[in-house]
Amino acid sequence: MNMISDNFESKSKFVAYLLLILNCLSPMAAIVIAPSLPQMQAEFSNIPNVEFLVPIALTIPGLLVALLSPVVGLIADKYGRKKMLVMATFIYSLIGVLPLFLHSLYAIIGSRAILGMAEAVIVTISTTLIGDYYSGAIRQRYLALQTTFASSSAILFFMIGGVLGEFGWRVPYAVYAVPVVLGILGAFMLWEPKQQQMSADDDHEAQAVTFQPKLLFFICAVTCIGALAFMILQIQMAFILGSIGETSPKVAGNISSACSALIVAGTLSVHLFSRLKLKVGHNLFIAFGLIGLSFLLMSHATSADQVLLYALLNGFGCGLLLPTLAIWNMKNLPWFKRGIGTGMWYGSYCLGMFFSPILFVAATKFTGNLFNTLALAGWVLIPLALIALVLGFVKGTQTQPVATPDKA
User: Fold this and answer.
1) SS3 212
2) Measured between alpha carbons, how far is 279 from 378 in angstroms, rounded to an integer?
3) What is the pLDDT of residues 245-272, one digit of tens each?
């Protein structure tokens, strides 16, 4: 049973897309300034260790999301969602534009840390509200669309950041003024979910939803592994191509863009697979299997064309993986633990992304070269895919079929 009345159909759709766009503020936090980092580093070249400090300005929001999302979820479960989300959106916008005026690199890094705190609130609660406002097939649809929106917006933010960066490294920070509009819309359009409604919605699920801490930790562990794998090609693509003699940044960018397009296609395939009544475990089998296979094949690549083909396999698997994990997690959270459960899921996802390049470099020192590390990653993921296939036959991982909804 959908929690939203038919009388609120159009508002419901608008609210859903508002929450999806709010979730896109997470990739925006890093990507929009990424193209201008070399200019920023040149500006502060007189500061010791600037080559380490400037990348920290890019990555520190994600680290704060990883550390604070569980705390945010816990607070949201206890004190409510809407006010926190709206306030965090305004703070995100206000703090985001500060580097336009700050002249200290350390102050900029500090502002970026505060931005990460606001981002932790936004991504955790926007996802939690999707779980609160919607149920069943509708919820599953919007959770899958989260990754679609995030992947698509990443391409847009790269373009915007690159264009604005032509006018100076500070100019891209002006984009952070835009979320003020989202905060205003959220203040008027969002509502605080009622406990009675959420409890009744849980009662109408296909199976009783009980909080299982061990299952939550297991899902978070799998999510962390998935995020580790997801980021490998995102970061290592240029190095992989360089190792086979292809040093053109344009080629690396084109292959990465094609991979991103397949990520979007993978997220959209979640609907198709659910209509075929595949379970979470089956989706994870396909996703981890494709990612693992792409790493194994790429470890033997000798041309850019081969890298492109294997990157497409990887992108589709990654696109299928993330929404499947989000759906699996949300499905097993009762309403009164939805905030903390979502926060822990996001935290594990961000930790995996943060540690992915660190672990890859460390593993490469052990294996001898990056192709051996890719092969190692493949051989780790293939058994995980087989385990997921077994889990596909476990009742607890079954998903509801997604039919074309009459209402949203």
Assistant:
1) coil
2) 23
3) 887 777 877 887 788 889 989 988 987 8
